[in-house]
């Protein structure tokens, strides 16, 4: 696939250099020029959308950039990057779950999560949880799901409010289920994080239907082996 892309760029470069009155370029220069054009177009369209929101969908303060719209219209849609394989995640979800850990009593909690996409090839993620009575905040985490080009590999990158960052990876499939696993060095923490430190995690998201999703978090710490820590079933409360 990469060779085919490079060959296409070389063909395009030959056609460009064949035109009268142009300075000869190599395919890397042509490709860089296109990347710059795409970047400027995306920024222009994003600005138009922000201004439209500020005017409640009315006329933006700046003029419509038809050139940018034309460029964006021929850029591959996010689905072409693999987003479609996890599109079932997109939306806001809420549910009640239970947690367990060998040294504490089992507990119940309420959680709200949101997966969203802004038209670029990654998924935004955020989660907030409270005690079962929804009166005491418990855990916050946020991050992104990124897609490895031309593969089924995806990565979930998270920052936690207790001072840890987490990068877990998995592979997409046709079953509407994704299993993320951490690897050596993919978890890190601030210097004064409380013990025991988390040393490994696994996350499993599974669709149970159009408006229901199951989540399981497995966790290992310095003094406990990998085991089920959280289990929750979400109901969709809002689509993207």
From TrEMBL:
* UniProt-listed Gene3D superfamilies: 2.40.128.20
Give the matching InterPro entries: Calycin (IPR012674), Myb_DNA-bind_5 (IPR028002), Nitrobindin (IPR045165), THAP4-like_heme-bd (IPR014878)
Q: Which residues form a coiled coil?
A: none
Q: What is the catalytic activity of this protein?
A: peroxynitrite = nitrate
Q: Which Pfam families match?
A: Myb_DNA-bind_5, THAP4_heme-bd
Q: What range(s) does the Myb/SANT-like DNA-binding domain occupy?
A: 2-47
Q: Using the record's annotation, list all stretches that form the THAP4-like heme-binding domain.
A: 83-236
Q: What is this protein called?
A: Uncharacterized protein
């Amino acid at each position: 696939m990469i060779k085919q892309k490079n060959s296409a760029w070389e063909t395009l470069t030959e056609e460009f250099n064949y035109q009268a009155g142009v300075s000869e370029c190599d395919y890397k220069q042509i490709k860089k020029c296109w990347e710059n054009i795409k970047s400027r177009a995306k920024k222009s369209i994003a600005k138009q959308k922000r201004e439209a929101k500020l005017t409640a969908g009315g006329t933006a303060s700046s003029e419509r950039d038809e050139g940018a719209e034309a460029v964006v219209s021929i850029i591959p849609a996010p689905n072409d990057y693999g987003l479609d394989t996890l599109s079932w995640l997109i939306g806001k979800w809420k549910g009640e779950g239970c947690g367990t850990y060998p040294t504490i009593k089992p507990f119940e909690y309420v959680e709200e999560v949101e997966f969203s996409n802004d038209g670029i090839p990654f998924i935004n993620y955020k989660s907030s949880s409270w005690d079962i009575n929804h009166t005491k905040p418990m855990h916050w985490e946020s991050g992104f799901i990124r897609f490895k080009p031309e593969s089924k590999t995806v990565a979930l990158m998270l920052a936690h409010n207790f001072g840890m960052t987490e990068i877990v990876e998995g592979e997409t499939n046709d079953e509407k289920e994704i299993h993320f696993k951490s690897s050596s060095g993919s978890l890190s923490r601030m210097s004064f994080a409380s013990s025991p430190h988390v040393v490994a995690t696994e996350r499993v998201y599974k669709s149970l239907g159009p408006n229901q999703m199951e989540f399981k978090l497995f966790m290992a710490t310095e003094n406990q082996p990998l085991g089920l820590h959280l289990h929750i079933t979400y109901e969709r409360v809002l689509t993207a």
